[in-house]
Design brief:
Layout: E1 3-15, E2 22-34, E3 37-40, E4 42-43, E5 49-52, E6 64-83, E7 104-118, E8 121-135, E9 140-142, E10 151-153, E11 158-177, E12 187-207, E13 210-215, E14 223-233, E15 236-243, E16 257-266
Antiparallel strand pairs: 1-2, 3-5, 4-6, 6-7, 6-16, 7-8, 8-11, 9-10, 11-12, 12-13, 12-14, 14-15, 15-16
Length: 268
């Protein structure tokens, strides 16, 4: 925070017409000048800004494009599996039984292109990263290179058995927003498609004998597509995502096994 201080001394002198008595009154006034700074990470009124000593905001903005770097829509939530319409795994998928409260979905966006139609509605396409982590219950080792998603019993007693995948995520969103309230906050209602391209996947196991991390495709879908919804107030919200294609490719036994994520979100 940068502040520049200037001090000005104003002297008021009053002299009688006959110059018999001279009285001088000095008034000292301190004036503080604050430098306001905005750093824009792109172009357009909707790009991410870093504000220093600037609390002003515009109630209404004109339509226009925006593009730039961002660090927003930080999602942290839970991953659940939907097996042909049921949240209970079928016997064919029971080996994927997972710990619900330890299976996570984490992600955020780093790039955004958007068009603001009005202060209450905008459209944007973003790019970021998304991590899916399944904490498996069973003492098994998922195979990397089988003709389908297969496993073998583990020879050690595992304390952690985590199957993970990392995706580049591409949300295409329609953001409906209310006008700012007295505190400068607003409600958001966001819906739209959510796309993903897998860039890595792995199996991490921990036991008393040590830790092991094995990389491979594990038949995770190379491309996924679904729908996402967000709702919130101010900077905080909740999100839900459901993917329409199978979670695993080229594995007939897992046909109809799909992914549903939900949780908390920060930023719009």
């Amino acid at each position: 925070m940068k502040r520049l201080f200037f001090t000005t001394i104003i002297c008021l002198a009053a002299t009688s017409l006959f110059a018999q008595t001279t009285t001088t009154d000095s008034v000292k006034t301190d004036t503080t000048k604050t430098r306001r700074t905005r750093i824009r990470l792109g172009f357009g009124d909707d790009v991410t800004e870093v504000k220093i000593n600037d609390t002003t905001h515009t109630a209404s903005k004109a339509p226009g494009f925006s593009f730039g770097l961002t660090f927003t829509r930080f999602d942290i939530g839970l991953t659940t599996l939907n097996d042909n319409g049921s949240f209970t795994l079928s016997p064919a998928n029971d080996f994927l039984s997972y710990r619900s409260w330890r299976s996570s979905s984490i992600g955020f966006d780093v790039l955004q292109l958007g068009y603001r139609f009005s202060s209450s509605f905008r459209f944007y396409v973003a790019g970021g990263f998304d991590w899916t982590n399944l904490r498996l219950r069973n003492n098994i080792t998922i195979q990397r290179d089988g003709p389908g998603l297969t496993y073998i019993p583990s020879t050690t007693d595992l304390t952690k058995n985590r199957l993970s995948a990392t995706y580049i995520r591409v949300p295409i969103s329609f953001d409906f927003r209310t006008h700012d309230d007295a505190d400068g906050r607003r409600f958001h209602f966001v819906v739209g498609p959510d796309l993903g391209i897998r860039i890595s996947s792995s199996l991490k196991q921990e036991s008393k004998q040590g830790d092991t991390k094995l990389t491979g495709d594990y038949h995770f879908a190379k491309f996924r597509y679904g729908a996402a919804a967000r709702i919130g107030y101010g900077a905080i919200g909740v999100f839900a995502k459901y993917y329409f294609n199978n979670m695993f490719d080229n594995s007939p036994a897992q046909d109809g096994l799909r992914q549903f994520n939900f949780g908390m979100s920060v930023g719009w």
